[in-house]
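Margin note: ligand = S-adenosylmethionine.
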Amino acid sequence: MYNPKSLKAEEFISHEEVLDTLEYAEKNKDNLELIDSIIAKAKERKGLSHREASVLLACENKEKIEEMYALAEQIKKDFYGNRIVMFAPLYLSNYCVNGCVYCPYHLKNKHIERKKLTQEEVAREVIALQDMGHKRLAIEAGEDPVNNPIEYIIDCIKTIYSIKHKNGAIRRVNVNIAATTVENYRKLKEAEIGTYILFQETYHKESYEQLHPTGPKHDYAYHTEAMDRAMEGGIDDVGLGVLFGLELYKYEFAALLMHAEHLEAVHGVGPHTISVPRIKHADDIDPSAFDNSISDDIFAKICALIRISVPYTGMIISTRESQEVREKVIRLGVSQISGASRTSVGGYCEKERPHDTEQFDVSDQRTLDEVVRWLMEIGYIPSFCTACYREGRTGDRFMSLCKSGQIQNCCHPNALMTLKEFMMDYASEETRAIGEPLIEKELETIPKENVRFVAKENIRNIENGKRDFRF
Ligand code: SAM
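Resulting structure:
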């Protein structure tokens, strides 16, 4: 029985409800009257239910799909402006006791080198990341209670926050580690993490169990209920995600939105972010062995529909995707991207991209400077701001900020100031030549006069080497 308020995975992600939804969507995929009414509802910018969104996903009418894309673009602009938040993953350890069949870190993979960073190595990686200009990290680790216990993760977070190299600082550490206990989530909260991210991989229970044949991750309910435990532990920003390619995308899409609805129904706050990874080649992993891979067009449609279904949820795209795909989906709703990522343990300290401990192949291999320049060239403002979290603008408070239209007076100046820092400290001449005039131009778009005045003042201070503010 389907019950979005239940705390039981099989009730809030009810298999029957997903199947009914897919049947309903299939039956109505040519029902233009219904489709028009759903698009009209989406235009109110309050989101869509999983049933409504699934009808749009099933719809193959080109004209209607164009309408959906145009709406996604508009909502993206209205809610997130032209800002794109930047981050990088930091792999701490690839020791893992799970048997995930799509991941090279699985226990039975004996030819991948196992590595775990010492605190000195964490510090070296952080310095390398700071030297690129990163301020926000997502830490990643395999699941291994002996090698990667929660104490190790907490020590790493402390090390990361403690490193202040030149003008650098990591101001926000998001955490992507395996499902854990309320007590451990509380420890992560105390360590001042940003978002707790956990990909569901697949919502389809039977497939989930086959894809995770051994190890603690095999337990579907424990994994699927993790976000409820995280919220119980005090973490109010959680990040969902599906690994597209494992199961039928229509199933995953409906269930992903059901998960978001569940969090909203139980905790009063939906997910802070949704990630949309697709399976990639890796050591011991052949993506063609998974027969549910989706085309770039379907991928774009999913991104656009996530944007209009959960307008207040940020969307993340990693370097698994190429520059071309990233450009397409940034327009349709993605608000956060990684840059210059290394998916190997200790990879940032290596001159060449190392492949020995890589979790997956990276498609977008550009430097952070190149990614920043590219974003500006295609009309975006790369933002290194992390202020929202620190100022308590998370969850429902972020939502009210969005609704009141205050984002232009708040996020935009912060984005410009952090971009200015990047220009001063890390950008190449070529990037600065584009960035400096862009920042001056964008300053003039801040609507409130007093806010604009303070932002300009801060920019001049950064130029003069004064850094007495934190974002
Ligand atoms: N071990 C933790 C867990 O179980 O959630 C941390 C996550 S892992 C380091 C990050 C994510 O990478 C996984 O959740 C999975 O979705 C994704 N991943 C694993 N293998 C992949 C592959 N071959 N291609 C693309 N993404 C992959």
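The pocket of S-adenosylmethionine is lined by residues 102-103, 140, 142-143, 176-178, 198-199, 201, 217, 243, 277, 279-280, 282, 285, 320, 359-360 (CB under 6 Å).
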